[in-house]
Amino acid sequence: MSTAMTQPRTVSKSAHAQLVRAAAIGNFIEFFDFTLYGFFAVVISKQFFPAIDHTAALLSTFAIYGGAFVMRPVGAIVFGHVGDRIGRKTAMMVSVVLMTVATAAIGLLPTYAVIGVFAPLLLGICRLVQAVSAGGEQTGSYILVMEQSPVHERGRHGIKLLTYIMFGVGGGALVALGVTSLTTPAQLHDWGWRLPFLFVAPLGLVGLYMRLRLQDSEAFRAASQELARLERKPIPLFQAFRTAKKQMAVLFCWASLIALAGYILIGFMTTYMIEFQHFSISESLVVFGVGLMAAIPVVNQIGKWSDRVPRKTFALVMTLALLLWIFPAFILTQYGVFTAIIAIAVFAVILYPMNLVAGFAIIELFPVDIRASASGLPFQIGFAVFGGSAPFIATWLASSYSAIAPAYYVAGFAILILLVALRGLPTARAMETISVSVPEPPERAVVSAAEAPERP
User: Fold this and answer.
1) What is the pLDDT of residues 61-99, one digit of tens each?
2) Which residues cross the membrane (predicted)?
């Protein structure tokens, strides 16, 4: 791989803040919805799978939750190609529209009592559309923001994307709490659970407006100009497999770990507290809402700290913290709301900065012209395989063995992935943006120093 090293120009603080907000709103919507689905899994199971016993209905609900993840790699392929060839902005605009429409549609679906087996079928279709959109949303937002951030500020800017995800999770909990508090149990099961999903519609319109005003990065525009000179332009995903297979494998490993731990947190822990620790729905929502919001200031500080240490050191520290905390996180939920809030807050303080490692890898392992395709597919395969299955497997483990059994699953996986991923993660804090991969003939594909964006 021959590369030209470029550094993004400095943009104003206000322009960068606008960029972060526009990139992050799609992640907010995605995790707001995914969190709502987890929070209301018990209610949804009774609305869409009432003809089977309670445990089977809950497992069926999580099966749709996890099954939709198989479409994430499809979304990664589609939006990765669009992002690499047409533009990051275009890909992000389409993804936020799909996510909004599919999420709002869940709030309008008829139940099993109205249309029978078509109800879970339509629910599954909505989840599939959401998953396609999510396949381009997560890596796309990292690229959009961190591609235009100076090397020594990628952590502090990237962590803002993750705090929006935390607002999505915590906000989903608090909105769900408001709905459950203001409705009777009968109203909640009848129509109350629909309201939070419908709330996404105006947010999506705001997100689309914000993304319409964005511009692609200078690095992307320079790469596009260079590729325009080629007689035969390589397909980004094919080029990625030719030139960046090892890097894709490394990202897959790390994404698998954060997907597993992440969806244990936001996809299973509420059900765990309700079904296995006998919390009320309201108590579990308080735990998540307060825990996530309390963690945000600490997460922001960790993001700033990540800019001052080597990438591998940062990854090692956060993974060891996960190993040390995963068992207390499950144990503390057994002693009431207060200790459960501590368990969730510390879990979030560890987990979300671990996602930042993936953002570094996306920017620092892959050239600009294949970045969206090369990062999106392995990232989303990791989420599809290990994130989508996490609530289902955790429910089965807790039901079949012990309430703490899912913690062993996370810990064992963390040890394995740590040994694999740390060999290939970026090592130098000062690594700069890689410009263009090298299709044949190589002399035509290298961005010259004169063509590359200026250093600030």
Assistant:
1) 666 666 677 888 999 999 999 988 888 888 888 988 988
2) 20-44, 56-79, 91-109, 161-179, 191-212, 249-273, 285-302, 314-332, 338-365, 377-397, 403-422
Q: How far apart are CA 54 and CA 46, in angstroms?
A: 8
For the segment 186-197, what is each residue's pLDDT rounded down to a tens digit?
888 888 889 888
278-321 tens-digit pLDDT:
888 788 888 888 998 999 999 999 999 999 998 888 999 999 99
What phi and psi values does residue 52 have, to the nearest 5 degrees?
Answer: -120, 170
Burial class (CB in 10 A: 0-12, 13-18, 19+), 35: buried
What are phi and psi for residue 310, nearest 5 degrees? -60, 150
Q: What is the DSSP letter of 6?
A: E
Query: How many other C-beta atoms lie within 10 A of the C-beta of residue 118?
Result: 12
Contacting residues for 236 by C-beta, under 8 A, at least 6 apart: 80, 81, 84, 85, 369, 370, 372, 373, 374
Q: Which two tokens stand for residue 424?
A: 């290939």
Q: How large is the greatest C-alpha to C-alpha distance in the chain, in angstroms?
A: 70
